[in-house]
Design goal:
The chain is built from eleven helices and 15 strands. It is an alpha/beta fold. Helix 1 crosses helix 7.
C-alpha cells in the first residue's frame, strides 16, 4: 500500500517511512526541506513542496491515486523558538495544516494520522501519568499549535466525513536501528541530543535545565520512547486504519486520540545516569534554570494504544541511548551541512 507522509524527510517521518518499507509498503514523501533532510529521501518517491501547496498535492495524487492515507508529521517543533517566534509557528503549523486537510479531503484522501504531542496536556495534580482523558492546557506556542491542529482535524472529521487518528507522542529518542536516519538538526535542542553532543565533545558540558520541580529529584520527568517503537505504532495506525476504528466502536465523531509512550516516567537526572552507564564514563554537567516554555513533564498511560493498535513499547531506554550515540558518530558521514 502507498501512504503519503508530510514531513517525511524529518526525524520521525523518515523513520516511519523506513518501517513502512520494511513491511513492504511504499511511502510517498512530501517535504519542503526547511528542516527536513534530502538525504532521508534517497531511493524514495519524493516531492519537495510546502504542505499548503495545492498544485503540488494535486500532482502527488495524480501520480499516485492509490494513496491509502496520509501521515501528517510536518511541523516546526522547537519550544523556545516558538516562544520567540509565535507568528512563524502558528503560520507553519496551524494555518498550513488547515489548508492541507482541506486539500486532502478534496483529493479524496479522508484518512489522516496526525503527529500530535503530549505537550498539550495540563500538569497533573498528585502525579505525572496522563491518559487520553486528562485535561489539556498547552503552555507554549508550539504546544498550542499542536492542540489547534487537533481541533481542526476533529472538526473536519465531523463536518466532512474524514477520519482522523491523533497520536500524542511523548519523548522520542534513539535512531533507526539500521542507521538509515536519526536526529537531523545540526544543533539539537532536546535532552538526549545535547547529551550525545557533550559526549562527542561538541558541547563542553550538559545543562540540566530546571532542578526545582516537584518530582522525586527536582528535575523534569519525561516518557522517553525509542523512535523505532514509535514508528511501529504509526505503521499499524496507517495499515490497520479501519480496524483501529472498529476496535474503538466506530465513534460518531470519526476521531481517535491515542497516547504513544512507555508508561514509565524517567527524570532528566535519571536519564543522565543511564546515559553515563551506557556511554561508559561521566560527562561534564551543570544545573541551570528552566528554558522558556519548559514544563515539569508527564508520562503516558498507553492502555488505549495496546487495545486499539495492539502496540506497546518494547525497546528499553538504554537501547535508545546506544542508538543515539551510534547515530551521533555516524551522522556526519550521512548528513552534509553547508
Amino acid at each position: 500500500m502507498k501512504f503519503l507522509i508530510t514531513g517525511g524527510a524529518g526525524y520521525i517521518g523518515s523513520t516511519v517511512a523506513s518501517a513502512l518499507e520494511d513491511e513492504g509498503h511504499t511511502p510517498i514523501i512530501l517535504d519542503s526541506l526547511v528542516t527536513g533532510r534530502v538525504e532521508f529521501t534517497k531511493d524514495r518517491i519524493f516531492y519537495q513542496a510546502d504542505i499548503a501547496d495545492a498544485s503540488a498535492l494535486e500532482r502527488v495524487f495524480a501520480d499516485h491515486p492509490d494513496i491509502e492515507a496520509c501521515l501528517h508529521c510536518a511541523a516546526l517543533i522547537v519550544v523556545p523558538e516558538s516562544v520567540e517566534q509565535p507568528y512563524l509557528y502558528y503560520r507553519e503549523n496551524v494555518a498550513k495544516s488547515l489548508e492541507l486537510f482541506m486539500i486532502l479531503h478534496r483529493m479524496g484522501c479522508d484518512k489522516v494520522v496526525f503527529s500530535s504531542s503530549a505537550a498539550i496536556y495540563a500538569p497533573v495534580a498528585g502525579g505525572f501519568m496522563v491518559t487520553e482523558e486528562s485535561p489539556l492546557d498547552p503552555n507554549c506556542p508550539y504546544a498550542r499549535t499542536k492542540y489547534m491542529m487537533e481541533m481542526v482535524l476533529r472538526d473536519f472529521c465531523q463536518a466532512y466525513g474524514m477520519k482522523g487518528i491523533a497520536l500524542r507522542y511523548f519523548n522520542p529518542i534513539g535512531a533507526d536501528p539500521k542507521m538509515r536516519s536519526g536526529v537531523h538538526i545540526k544543533n539539537p535542542s532536546h535532552v538526549l541530543g545535547k547529551l550525545v553532543e557533550t559526549a562527542l565533545g561538541i558541547n563542553p558540558e550538559f545543562h540540566i535545565t530546571g532542578t526545582e520541580y516537584e518530582t522525586r529529584d527536582g528535575t523534569g520527568i519525561r516518557d522517553y520512547i525509542h523512535i523505532w517503537d514509535l514508528a511501529r505504532a504509526h505503521v499499524t495506525g496507517l495499515t490497520d486504519f479501519d480496524a483501529v476504528f472498529e476496535r474503538a466502536g466506530n465513534p460518531s465523531e470519526n476521531y481517535l486520540v491515542i497516547n504513544l509512550g512507555t508508561g514509565l516516567g524517567v527524570t532528566v537526572r535519571e536519564l543522565v545516569t543511564a546515559f553515563e552507564k551506557v556511554y561508559g564514563q561521566t560527562i561534564n554537567k551543570r544545573e541551570m534554570p528552566p528554558r522558556l516554555g519548559d514544563v515539569p513533564g508527564a508520562y503516558a498511560n498507553a492502555d488505549i494504544a495496546l487495545r486499539l493498535l495492539g502496540w506497546k513499547a518494547d525497546l528499553p531506554i538504554e537501547q535508545g541511548i546506544a542508538d543515539a550515540l551510534k547515530w551521533g558518530e555516524l551522522r556526519q558521514q550521512i548528513l552534509h551541512w553547508d
